[in-house]
Task: structure prediction
Amino acid sequence: MTARSAPPKGVTVIEGGSATTPRGFVAGAVYAGIKTAGKGKLDLGILASDRPASAAAMFTRNNVKGAAVVVSQGHVRNGSARGVVVNAGISNVANGAPGMRDAKEMCRLAAAALGVNDAELLVGSTGVIGHPLPMDRIRAGVPKIRLSAGGGPAFARAIMTTDTHPKTMAVRFRAAGREYRLGAVAKGVGMIHPDMATMFCFLTTDAAVEQRYLRGALKSAVDDSLNMISVDGDTSTSDTTAIFANGAAGGPEIGATHAGAAAFERALCYVCTAMAKMLARDGEGAEKLIEVRIEGAASERQARAAARTVTASPLVKTAVHGADPNWGRLMMAVGRSGARIDLARARAWLGDIMVYRGRPLPFDERAASDLLRNEEVLLRVDLGAGDASATAWGCDLTPEYVHINSDYTT
Amino acid sequence: MTARSAPPKGVTVIEGGSATTPRGFVAGAVYAGIKTAGKGKLDLGILASDRPASAAAMFTRNNVKGAAVVVSQGHVRNGSARGVVVNAGISNVANGAPGMRDAKEMCRLAAAALGVNDAELLVGSTGVIGHPLPMDRIRAGVPKIRLSAGGGPAFARAIMTTDTHPKTMAVRFRAAGREYRLGAVAKGVGMIHPDMATMFCFLTTDAAVEQRYLRGALKSAVDDSLNMISVDGDTSTSDTTAIFANGAAGGPEIGATHAGAAAFERALCYVCTAMAKMLARDGEGAEKLIEVRIEGAASERQARAAARTVTASPLVKTAVHGADPNWGRLMMAVGRSGARIDLARARAWLGDIMVYRGRPLPFDERAASDLLRNEEVLLRVDLGAGDASATAWGCDLTPEYVHINSDYTT
Result:
């Protein structure tokens, strides 16, 4: 799997790892009855550090924000938090003052279970918008959550909505002679076009990390990974990415001037990218992961816009779905992104087959179509306008996407 | 049909009207062999005035522009033109210098047939991107086009690509005591998210209209109509809207201070809106026309952004397709548009059923679902943030859209 391929130097994937693989983290989940019932279903979970942790988070830029987002923004502002309590099934968005009360009560219930302060917890809710949370079920459910260092995989299942499988991993990395672990868990395969972070991605590390540095490192990693995926161009009201660094591995705090900073950033970026690709690959109804590389852009901003526009184009997504080597749609999407393109110098590739170099090139359409039949499809354009580049990830658009989303609440 | 409902005062729809209903316009079309063959197919047409005409045009804002767009921009710059020659099947985009030569030759061929100068004609090409135009077939085809005042309907068929039916109409309007006619023809039901005009919409009128005033009147009408539709969020490389005013009805030139200016603008706006709705309703694979009205916005720009974002949201489009009264998606889409919304004062409706007023309202889900089963669906949001409003049109997203676009060139 590409998601796990080629970790950078000093980073090793831990087989079977999860968000509780880093030392000092516990998690657990129960079925509280928020999702419709089903065998082995979970819908309410807690992920937490057993000691105070540096924390940083990024949230949706959608002007309609879920109550959980608003509450979490307040709780993470001081740069420290223990963890997060999450429910799936109902997203607690556009519920007015009662919604805010419910989000705060979720923090309070989880804090009581952990024996910490309410304000040390973030909260997340994902699912249908505009329905009230069934607080009686959440009140009954939270005390039943059994927290353990083996609870990471259960937490990963509890936060799923239309995801077809849980998404979690962990890596080991060396920084300044010490070994640390970094874990992650994510969900969200629809309403995905993060403008800040993906729907949910929670990261844990047993490294001690300086707060302000942690914020910058998270932003930098997310901008090149979770903020570069698109399933359907729609931005959720609840997007939340948070990292908790509890220092359980010992050693001095990692900060900008620490000898291990670069190694930490490499590990963080690798894990964020791997999670981003897992999400895009599992896009609602999707059969393929599409990677779009833009080169030769006049600026990084233009490169990013072009890459994201291609991943969000229904015409590109359907062409990939149909293994149709219709590269004109790739040029159309790049063109409408606003990025400057010099058509006389531009080049374009489907996989490794060059199809345009200043003008259309003859190419083997059958071979190109075969490339588009792979589970991973690379589309690449050199805009011929400068030196900047960017990569984005998306998925194909299938009839199944329409089926899934035509019948959700009813 | 809504497209023809309720013309404004002084405007009357002419049954069976087309772009050649205004006096002094002729059109014709042939099958030149650019589209794959089929019974009664046409793919090459000319629409022209028998005398010089004031002309104004608007083109795609996509940075990748078709050669026909570039040539037409040059030819319309002086404010006068006779008409347009159009082929469907291949769009002549990204073809480099040979593409520019071909676009100019199309003008030359049509100008010779009409006995006018090359620079008096606009040109349009629509279809697959990146294939060369079969100029031998176009050279053979143009002289075979028989132009007549009854040729409007044939021209409407010749410019179709994935349209399921031709789109053309005409109205009669009175301005300052004189009767004029205004005709229109349009095509384009995919790659539709005009950022300037829709794929092709050509307007004809036998009114004499002052050039600079005509440009302003066209822009104003298009901004509220053709620039407010979306089928798939993708902006074509070939979008072109042009109007030709040949004065065949006699009378003084209509200009900003003419007593008939308001009547002309009403007629123009009505026809542009009717054509826009015809295009959206025939969106690839679409079964429903979606009208989105945004009120209470802080600015007109924000109102337009919110309305367009809703029409382009796959999650809204699939919910309408499934008659799913999942109004949370409406709020999500409004939220990600960047428009300011005051959730405490906002209101939302599915059809005439209010579902949100500061908080979710209880409503009859079955009745709402029934409303969403109509062929025309109204979605309405009051943002509670000001006094500006805007309306946009789109269509539902169906599995058929994916089928159509997964197999186009191959």
About this structure: Residues 88 and 161 of chain A are 6 Å apart (CA to CA). The first strand of chain A starts at residue 11 and ends at 13. Chain A has a mean pLDDT of 91.
